[in-house]
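Subject: for your reference before the review

Hello V.,

The reviewers asked for a structural picture of the protein, and I figured it would be easier to keep everything in one thread rather than splitting it across files. Below is the amino acid sequence we used in the manuscript, unchanged from the supplementary table.
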Amino acid sequence: MAGHNKWSSIKHKKAKTDAQKGKIFSKVAREIMQATKLGGEDPGMNPRLRLALQKAKEVNMPNDNVKRAIQKGAGSEGENQLEELQFEAYGPHGIAILIDTLTDNRNRTITNLKVILNKGGGNLADKGAVSYLFETKGLIFFETTEHEDSIIDLAIEKGADDIDTKPEGEIEIITSIDNLESLKTCYDNQGFNYETATLTKIPSTFVSITHEQFEKVEALLEKIEDDDDVQEVYSNIDIKESS
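And here is what came back from the structure prediction:
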């Protein structure tokens, strides 16, 4: 596994900015509602809700917002009926894009995504065209830490699939879905503070582009992610290092 890609690191940093603006709260609330609707309001019995609550904690979402989202998800109000849709797309330079959405109006979502992709040099793809390139994995991301060796040793000991370290001190740990919660708990017990612990989708192959090409791709991915109905955006881009 080649590690996670450039867009992944940018997303982690962008989430902080969005959280400061309060922009991400509505997306997290939707995920809490959907998780509660499908699996119940007890986090101890609902792994998806536990992950959603973890995300709420990471973006400092107020407790009152969290409680309201759980209550809405547990209720049966018609206006809170959300549909999960996944879209596949191609972007500039042949990159693959996977888009997870939660929407109460699929026609609006499809139209919005078509417009964004067309303006950004991309297009929607047929079902199955790019999804086969991605595998769902657990991700634990450390931005900066004084305990790099201990964090890496613990990941190896607990059977992580891949560990990617960056010169800036960032550490990405990729693990199986089943192993994510136990590894996260180990870090919690040791007092190691990570930026995020979540599920992600890892591409099996990457498309290498230059830093200049990435500027256009980044603008497109941000436009997609900024859409109110979009929950997550994944791509298989990798940046060529300057020689």
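For the response letter, the relevant points are probably these. Residues 83-132+206-237 form a domain with the Alpha-Beta Plaits fold (CATH 3.30.70.980). The chain has eight helices and ten strands.

Happy to draft the paragraph if you're swamped.

O.
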